[in-house]
Write a structure and sequence with these properties.
With 119 residues, the chain is an alpha/beta fold. The protein is 41% helix and 15% strand. The chain has helices at residues 50-60, 63-76, 78-88, 106-118; strands at residues 4-9, 20-23, 41-42, 92-97. A four-stranded parallel beta sheet has the order 1-4-2-3, covered by helices on one side. Helix 2 packs across helix 4 (106-118). This is Uroporphyrin-III C-methyltransferase.
């Protein structure tokens, strides 16, 4: 059975249907106390590198190029990512992020990458 992966902002209320909750940001979200985050795993390794994140926000906002570079980072960290996937071992999980524009962030790219790895 393929994994069900959802995407949410960490500022949304946690619900039981979230399943295993994974924060996929390199930086801890502003205004969220760790005790109140209700996360099962903070997977900084799944987030874009600091350099790529800064480039995307400061330089161009070119989402297609960002997507290409981020997928390349994910591919180059495949062994580490597979280790994270083995830790999860659940069929339903939610990728959490603090970004405002989730649709044009790293999270949809990550979701697609993980679906491919889990199938």
């Amino acid at each position: 059975m393929p994994a069900k992966i959802q995407i949410k902002r960490i500022y949304e209320e946690p619900v039981e249907s979230d399943g295993y909750r994974i924060l996929a940001d390199r930086l801890w979200p502003r205004g969220v106390a760790k005790a109140d985050a209700h996360i099962d795993l903070w997977a900084k390794e799944l987030a874009p590198s600091t350099e790529l994140r800064k480039w995307f926000h400061a330089e161009t906002r070119d989402y297609q190029e960002f997507s290409r570079r981020y997928r390349s980072e994910l591919e180059s960290n495949l062994t580490e990512i597979q280790g994270i996937i083995k830790k999860i071992e659940v069929s339903k999980f939610t990728l959490l992020t603090a970004v405002k524009d989730v649709e044009h962030s790293h999270v949809p790219i990550l979701k697609k990458f993980l679906v491919k790895q889990l199938s």
